[in-house]
Amino acid sequence: MRILQTIVPALLPLAQRFLHFCLPNCCLWCDFAVQRPGAQLCDYCQAALPRLHWPAGAQALQLPAVQRGLQSPQFNAVWSLSWYQQPWSHFISAWKLQQDLACGVMLRQQLATVLPEWVLHQHYDAVAYVPVHRKRLRERGFNQSRQLAMTVSCSTDLPLLDLFLAQSHLPHQLGASASARRAQLRRQFRLRPAVNDWQQLPQRILLVDDVLTTGATLNQLSRLLRKAGVQQIGVVTLAITPAPGVSTTLYASQAPYTGPALYSSPSPLSSPESNNLPK
């Protein structure tokens, strides 16, 4: 048994490379074959992804395009991969609403790539995530925030804590106004009963969600953590919705693209958002 436990993990990369050689994945963006085993995007589309880049010590709450869209944020810092824009918005929606698991794998890969640059393990003690109601969990089959938090936990070696309960089943909040989101979220979350039995929560916790829009959900969870004695709360998301009316053109948000134009054409995706993918 011990021999198998040693041999099987060593053979998996070889099997993956063999399968990639025989039948490579198609890029989720352009539909051409990817160059690397296990990748969901080809190298050219990877380079073309719009991104936010954070210098050492910088984070999103320092940007007017973020700060002005939040009402009294209860968290101290935010890191994110990109503005909520194409093609990120398509990939996130396809994962959450259409159960496109390949998009989920790709988004987690993107997050894992940048986490070492953010060196969050030096400033935080644990990772938590936004819960979903059990009815939504049955419908979707997974909690995307928990999966992202698992990626953060594995990449930073920080413990993953299951701290919150969702007490009611809310409709999807896509497109809802800030006031509507706050009204929906009143008394929506609470700390798990077991948390109250712990002597003390870590003083510095990272909250993980897929998208930061108005901050209403993360504010509610942050208030619960503050009441439990947490001193510093950071937020990690895939994307941020900029404040209405604030231009984001001042921020360098796209890495240099050096691939051929052929590879930047969009895939024949099922979502109506695919019509707006960059060409």
UniProtKB/TrEMBL annotation:
One Pfam short name: Pribosyltran
Residues annotated as domain Phosphoribosyltransferase: 203-239
Family the UniProt entry places it in: Belongs to the ComF/GntX family.
This protein's name: ComF family protein
Biological source species: Rheinheimera tilapiae
Highest classification ranks of the organism: Bacteria, Pseudomonadati, Pseudomonadota, Gammaproteobacteria, Chromatiales
